Inverse folding.
């Protein structure tokens, strides 16, 4: 899992039925100590956390665990939101996100 | 899930039976601002997308989940993008 920041969202009327009812968020990995974003922008599915742009989230990037989190064996999904991060600490640095 | 643009289609009269009935399109991977990023690939389609459309797709095992049975595909379109917001992405 990685810590990431929600930087956008996507809407799509026409999509696979296994994605119905989920939020589609754009995220980018967040480096805790510097607070910088890194890597490519990715799309993640939010099943129940109702996260939105500006939120810091815990992101899981593995298919079978993703389908388990969404409780939907037919969801064609690999990257999901697994939680909303309140605080993260690395060494002396404590970052609060709420 | 990754963004891309549909740029063409593929027709195969001789193919593995696992691909029977699967619509095959040629997709150019892009970034979220629709700029090309990487080499085109052939993908399955389950949402009825067509040339020029901005879509998102999945790869590997997730692609096989998209169609009934277990089709022999390694990439599939799963949605057509109507719109998106993107801010503060650096």
């Amino acid at each position: 899992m990685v810590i990431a920041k929600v930087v956008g969202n996507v809407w799509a009327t026409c999509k696979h039925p296994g994605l119905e009812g989920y939020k589609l968020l754009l995220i980018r990995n967040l480096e805790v100590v510097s607070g910088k974003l890194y890597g490519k922008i990715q799309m993640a599915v939010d099943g129940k956390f109702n996260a939105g742009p500006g939120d810091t989230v815990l992101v899981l990037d593995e298919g079978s665990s993703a389908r388990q989190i969404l409780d939907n064996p037919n969801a064609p999904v690999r990257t999901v939101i697994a939680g909303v991060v309140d605080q993260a600490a690395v060494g002396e640095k404590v970052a609060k996100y709420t | 899930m990754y963004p891309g643009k549909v740029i063409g289609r593929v027709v195969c009269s001789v193919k593995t039976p696992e691909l029977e009935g699967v619509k095959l399109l040629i997709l150019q991977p892009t970034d979220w601002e629709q700029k090309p990023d990487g080499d085109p690939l052939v993908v399955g389609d389950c949402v009825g997308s067509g040339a020029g459309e901005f879509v998102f797709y999945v790869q590997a095992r997730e692609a096989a989940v998209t169609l009934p049975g277990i089709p022999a595909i390694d990439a599939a379109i799963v949605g057509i993008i109507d719109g998106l917001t993107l801010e503060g992405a650096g």
